[in-house]
Amino acid sequence: MVQQMRKSITALAFFLLPALGMAQAPAPALKLKPDAPDRYVVVPGDTLWGIARRYTDSPWRWPELWGQNRDEIRNPHLIYPGNVLVLDRSRGTLAVSSGPGGTVKLSPRTRAEPVSQAAIPSIPPSVIEPFLTRPLVVEPDGMEKAPTIIATQADNVVVATGNLAYVRGISDSTDQTWYLYRRGNPLVDPDSNQTLGYEAVYLGTARTSRPGNPATVTITSAVQEVSAGDKLVAAGPALPVNYAPHAPQSAIKGRVMSIYGGLAGIGEAGPQSIITINRGKADGIEVGHVLAVYARGATVHDRGQPSTAKSAVIQLPEERAGLVFVFRVFDRVSYALVMDITRPIAPLDVVQTP
User: Fold this and answer.
1) Domain end marker among 175, 203, 234
2) Helix H segments across the chain?
3) How far apart are CA 278 and CA 257, in angstroms?
4) CA distances from 302 to 143, 296, 306, 308, 310 (A)
5) Residue 31, in any domain of the structure
6) Domain that holds residue 333
7) Do residues 200 and 343 share a domain?
8) Quick check: 24 and 82 in contact, CB under 8 A?
9) Do residues 89 and 32 lie in contact, with contact meaning Cβ atoms separated by under 8 Å?
10) How confident is the model over 51-61, as pLDDT tens digits?
């Protein structure tokens, strides 16, 4: 029962035609920046994306810098602080230096390292780690299926860290740690006007202190007020996100539905903001995909034409606004981290294969 409830929270089951999966034309040759360094020493805090950006304006094509396909470094425990990267300008590729005059082919290998020498990640992990296990999407009927707080300690209107709450719907669960949430803004597909689901507003965490129906839970953390009617979902292990950034292999086109944490359809996103996209697993989106964002072209009137003429209304072309990295994928919805922008990203902007 709880497994079914969890599935209803963390997956979407909607009927919407997927984006066209047209074959993508071969990518042009990777261009190096004129000021790309011949040698670079990897330091703690570096990311695959950040290093690639030093060498090219197409950082999602990271594997090509190593002359490899993306599957060879899909889980790239390969580059460590202290490594010296050497650029071969004639081939447009990077290698790890093995000492004076020598390089080492970058390939998967077993390596024992102290914690401080962990391999560098694809993107800044601290920004997205809180979103890797929390419920982010609630399908329309998911609220009714989820475990629910029915009463609070001493019948308080709201409870905080250390207080008790009483929950129905988890009596048969072996899970001990729970996330608390309530339904937030609707996620409306701008193309179909269909509600794909609702954002799950994260409230805090709880731990089962006494099983039963109702069960008793202790609030272990609270970032917002918790009250009767709020919902629970079992906390799971963090999802791996150490993937090499890469473009989709087929043509994908969708839209930005919302800026996470903002009002529905309102707000703008800058670097390291999180956005929701109206495309997901069913449309071919996967963790690690990099998408280009294009700002909507405005509709203007040509003052040189009569105001009644159809030609007087002109749709300006879309302009590229930035790049985003997909880190969490549901069936019809994805979450992406804004990596680079030339202008703020807004709801209804277009996302597509770069």
Assistant:
1) 234
2) 2-10, 48-55, 62-65, 125-128, 142-145
3) 6
4) 49, 18, 8, 11, 10
5) no
6) 253-352
7) no
8) no
9) yes
10) 888 998 888 88
